[in-house]
């Protein structure tokens, strides 16, 4: 537990997974430099540690597609700026449909992706077999291929965002479990960490 936590900061981000590190980075990037991040154990010790790391640009809605595309571009940009690898490997991703409902969903997602300039190819079974020759073609109605998708190392992505956040002025404290969020008149005014009010 770090005993040197600063008091009176503007924002306390609780949790050093990929979401917390990204939130802290963006807050500082857009001006809220007086932000700290508190992680109960160590960065990536939550769900982020278990993630397979698939990075897909296609989402079930326009908003999610936009966020995913932005995230991928951000990781590429930060890798250059910070000179730190997030383990990105963009080998492309193939999604297939074996039911009419799924096929309809994939085609709808492909249309949405095109609206946001995400490169996507709608494929028939012959085209799918060219990309993945050993596929069992039984019941396959079609598929979509996203050449710009791939995978990343979730721990690498989180540390990349943490480094970028620190560069923007965020202070990150590990071994700092938040025990309570303090509120007054419906507003958050502090936290309790290791029995002390901040
Ligand atoms: C098996 C598996 C595979 C996955 N595969 C993928 C994938 O391929 N692609 C994909 O995009 N997503 C995938 N996910 C989902 C992805 O891992 C999660 O959506 C993501 O990691 C959530 O991040 P988070 O920062 O919200 O949560 P977490 O990583 O859980 O971070 C929360 C953090 O908060 C800390 N914390 C909790 N309580 C406190 C407290 N009181 N005080 C201080 N700190 C606290 C925890 O220690 C933890 O570090 C997968 C998930 C799993 C389990």
Which helices and strands, and how do they pair?
Layout: E1 11-14, H1 18-29, E2 35-38, E3 54-55, H2 62-83, E4 93-97, H3 100-115, E5 121-123, H4 125-131, E6 142-146, E7 150-151, H5 154-167, E8 171-173, E9 178-184, E10 187-193, E11 196-197
Parallel strand pairs: 1-2, 2-8
Antiparallel strand pairs: 3-7, 4-6, 5-6, 9-10, 10-11
The chain binds flavin-adenine dinucleotide (FAD).
Flavin-adenine dinucleotide (FAD) binds near residues 20, 38, 39, 45 and 48.
Could you explain how this protein is built, in words?
With 198 residues, the protein is α+β, with helices and mostly antiparallel strands. The chain folds into two domains: 1-53 and 153-198, FAD/NAD(P)-binding domain (3-Layer(bba) Sandwich); 54-150, no CATH class. Helix content is 36%, strand content 22%. The strands form four sheets. A three-stranded parallel beta sheet has the order 1-2-8, with helices on one face. Strands 4-6-5 form a three-stranded antiparallel beta sheet. Strands 9-10-11 form a three-stranded antiparallel beta sheet, with no helix packed on it. Helix 1 packs parallel to helix 5 (154-167) and helix 2 crosses helix 5 (154-167). The chain is elongated. 29% of the residues are buried. Bound molecules: flavin-adenine dinucleotide.
Structure, briefly:
The protein is built from five helices and eleven strands. With 198 residues, the chain is an alpha+beta fold. It folds into two domains: 99 residues, FAD/NAD(P)-binding domain; 97 residues, no CATH class.
